[in-house]
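Weekly modeling sync, notes
Attendees: AB, CL, MP (scribe)

Item 1: holo prediction request
CL wants a bound-state model with glutathione before deciding which constructs to order. AB pointed out that an apo prediction alone won't tell us much about the pocket. Agreed to run with the ligand included and paste results into these notes for async review.

Input as submitted:
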Amino acid sequence: MSETKNQTQRILWGAGTARTLRAHWMLHELGLDYETRPIGSRTGETATPEFTRLNPRQKIPLLQDGEITLAESAAIVTYLAQNYGQAAGFIPPPLTAQRAAYFEWCFFIMTELDAHTLYVIRKHTNLVAIYGEAPAAVRAAREGFIKQVQVADQKLAQQPFILGASFTGADILLATCLGWAERLEVPLTATLRDYLERTTARPAYRLAHTANQRT
Ligand SMILES: N[C@@H](CCC(=O)N[C@@H](CS)C(=O)NCC(=O)O)C(=O)O
């Protein structure tokens, strides 16, 4: 796959959010060529007929990779790692304990950290005009994040990346959640702040951060 990786037409839809950043980041880690359609959330751009045909859920990010059209940031990161980054270690080999651990971390990060703690905080603090006030839910989500992220903190006190010695797609998901938590003023331990610094110092992160700008 690696010899043909830059011959496929590849388009990434979406910019400006932690979730779109994940897809840009993995594309840059892998050195894949791609075009960007930097549509943004809550702009109406995800509701155009053209985009709705590609993603009826009207959400970004969305990747077109040749014949494949794929939404969901964790699915995009994992698909790219599996198709173009397995030899380089961005995902552990299939049918191994490490691959099982990769899935466990990804599902944990996307449910416990992204969807039902950070996103709840964001909805009822930054986006109150749309979702309304819900101080008790924000408090519980904040406490929930701090409790759940402890398992990552304990792992990262012993090893550089969440699966061990190699940086994988799971690190992209985790680091983007930690950056998001910082922006929401959720406190992080020194271990997690060091990890965030280490992962975001990667050249691919820098390139992705620029590519993820809306303007
Ligand atoms: N679980 C999805 C969440 C995607 C999502 O909610 N994306 C937001 C932006 S971060 C969006 O597209 N919102 C549509 C809109 O607001 O127009 C993922 O991780 O990709």
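Recorded for review: The first helix runs from residue 18 to 30.
Action items: CL to compare against the apo run; MP to circulate these notes.
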